Amino acid sequence: MPAIDVRDLRKSYGEIRAVDGLSFRVEAGEVYALLGANGAGKSTAVEILEGHRTATSGSVQVLGVDPASAGRDFRDRIGIVLQSSGVEAEFTVREVISLYGGCYRNPRPFDEVIGLVGLDEKADARVGSLSGGQRRRVDLALGIVGRPELLFLDEPTTGFDPSARRRSWDLIEALGDDGTTVLLTTHYLDEAEHLADRVGVLSQGRLIAEGSPEQLIGQVSGTVISFMLPESMQVAEATSTFGQLLGVDIRLSGRLLEASVEQPTAAVHRITGWAVEAGVELESLSVSRVSLEDVYLALTDDSIGGDA
Amino acid sequence: MTGFPSAVPLLVAQTRYQLVTFRRIPVAVFFTLGLPLIMLVLFNALFGSGTFTTSEGEISAQQFYTGGLAAFTAVSATFTNLANMVPLRRDEGVLKRWRGTPLPTWIYLAGFIVSAVVIAFVGVVLMLTLGVVVYDLEIEPAKMPAAVLTFLVGVGSFAALGMALAAMVKSASSASAAANAIILPMAFVSNIFIQVDDAPGWIVALGNFFPLKHFAESFQDCFTPFVEPPAFDWASMGYVALWGLIGLVVALRRFTWEPSGSAPRGRRSRRAAVDATS
Q: Do the Cβ atoms of B266 and A54 come within 8 Å?
């Protein structure tokens, strides 16, 4: 039985279709990332799966039950880390973890929870005195205190500094290795790439692509070549010159030129040959594997272009 | 697999948690428990030597103030306190977080209400103790059952009304303003700060319409020497309970767990009604 089975889910608010025919499955033990821009419908979809909202239509099964009518037993088996949800500022970290933990059938011991989220030294600090990143770790702690089979993480590392982010990733990986099913939403591509077994790309309320990060990257084949345009060159001139040299469409952001190519060796040869002949230096020249970000940009460009 | 913790220890834990919260918010402690005591001292210093004549007999100003302000304290601890704290927790997203846990939602809300009743009880005992020690308040054991029942009906009803107001306001900041805008004028027409029986007719009518005067008077009666034991004022209690019932219905129909504006309008109220009754 899949942990999550969503079929043709729709949620409208009046004229606005926040979720518009979403279908996906998450197998037990899997880490699945819903990836999408703000407003793509991620949070609405996840809140329906958590039981916080009801669907307009479609079928939703989470751990074998419909979350809209599920009760205490269901909420004992899931953990929720919402995007913005307060914790009682008047209490210490230790107090809130014990208080919330006390409602579950089989809570994790306090020391284990505090160790997992890395807040040991803040155990007796009031929640109100913590930094934003530390509070987010309290959120995580309250999400895992009940030993959930399925953990919902809605943008779990937004606002984290890089080291806190890495630590949260380690925790999420450890939970995933432990057999916890994780449904993650994020708009950080590196986060999805790093953590997820599979990724669903959400745009305008429906999935536009799905697969493992490697599969998705494989769909947009090739290698990315990028460099800064030489000072002497106009943007229009660059587009035609390099477009012809490489035989593919190029992307420009500011003066940074990027192109996805099939045969990087030949492409680099043509570019560098041109540069040597023209007597210019190509600053920041790099050749790299396509990242999920390139896939995402390609996909969302297509879908928005296609609808317009 | 082990079972869920049972309801009683969960409710005790929730009540304790709300009481600790209250204790750690100095402004709440001051306005709920401190301010009525200060009012008692001030009113007695200013007007304490006089007597008030009511339709039933004469009452010393000291006894009048102690009984009335004790009732006012009970209302502050329930109505005002809940109408402030519940929307605050809703705005913070704390209510939504709790709804995602296996704690039954009724236990969460009951923890709020029971803690408010405990605070009301502490406030009333403080007020009456000060009244007995300093202001010649007489405690007649034969009237205490009536005092306890009147207290319970009052705090139950005003807690329900506080939850109703919490359910109707959009944000915590408007909740605080609304609660005070309701309760302070109501206190002036309800024999709390001043005796209003010979006031203009519309003021008397207003006082008679709202539940505070009925609660305050029936509670004062339990400490007024010329009222014979057992001093049960069934009509007043019934009227207060009726208001409480209306509050309960409004609270159940309108209660929301999420901050306003977190979902596009229109859908939430219907959903909330389903949640509150389930």
A: no
List B residues 64-123 in contact with A (Cβ-Cβ < 8 A): 89, 92-94, 96-97, 99-104
Topology of A4-217 in CATH? Rossmann fold (3.40.50)
Total Cβ atoms within 10 A of residue A49:
24
The Cα B36–Cα B106 span in angstroms is 31
Q: List, for chain A, all residue ranges whose pLDDT scores fall below the cut of 50.
A: 303-308
Q: Do B99 and A50 touch (CB under 8 A)?
A: no
**In chain A, what are the domain boundaries?**
4-217, 222-289
Assign a CATH topology to domain A222-289.
Alpha-Beta Plaits (3.30.70)
- Chain A interface mutation, best of B97, B103, B256, B275, highest count of A Cβ atoms under 10 Å: B97
Task: Give the separation between CA A255 and CA A92, rounded to whole angstroms.
Answer: 50
A14 at interface of B, judged by CB pairs closer than 8 A: yes
pLDDT exceeds cutoff 50 at B139: yes
Query: Lowest mean pLDDT: which of A241-245, B97-101, B112-116?
Result: A241-245
Instruction: Spell out the domain ranges in chain B.
Output: 7-277
Q: What is the pLDDT of residues B39-96, one digit of tens each?
A: 999 988 888 777 877 666 777 888 888 889 999 999 999 999 999 999 999 999 999 9
Asked if the model's pLDDT at residue B109 lies above 50, the reply is yes
The pLDDT tens digits of the residues spanning B212-260 come to 999 999 998 898 888 878 888 899 999 999 999 999 999 989 898 888 7
**Chain B CA closest to residue A50:** B100
Taking residue B46's Cβ as centre, other Cβ atoms within 10 Å add up to 10
Chain A interface, best mutation among B19, B101, B105, B106, by max A CB count within 10 A? B101
Is A142 within 8 Å of chain B by CB?
yes
> A with B: how many residue pairs have Cβ under 8 Å apart?
83
Q: State the pLDDT confidence band at B1, using cuts at 50, 70 and 90.
A: low
pTM of the predicted model as reported, rounded to 2 decimal places: 0.82
CA distance A134 to A119: 7
Interchain pair A105, B102: CB under 8 A: yes
- Which residues does chain B have within 8 Å of residue A13's beta carbon, measured at their own beta carbons? 263-264, 266-267
Residues of A whose CB is below 8 A from B258? 52
Whether the Cβ atoms of residue A209 and residue A192 lie closer than 8 Å to each other:
no
Residue-level pLDDT at B275: 44
The predicted pLDDT at position B55 comes to 67
Q: How far apart are CA A183 and CA A153, in angstroms?
A: 6
Q: Which two tokens stand for residue A57?
A: 């239509």
Six token digits for residue A69 = 């009518």
CA distance B260 to A114: 32
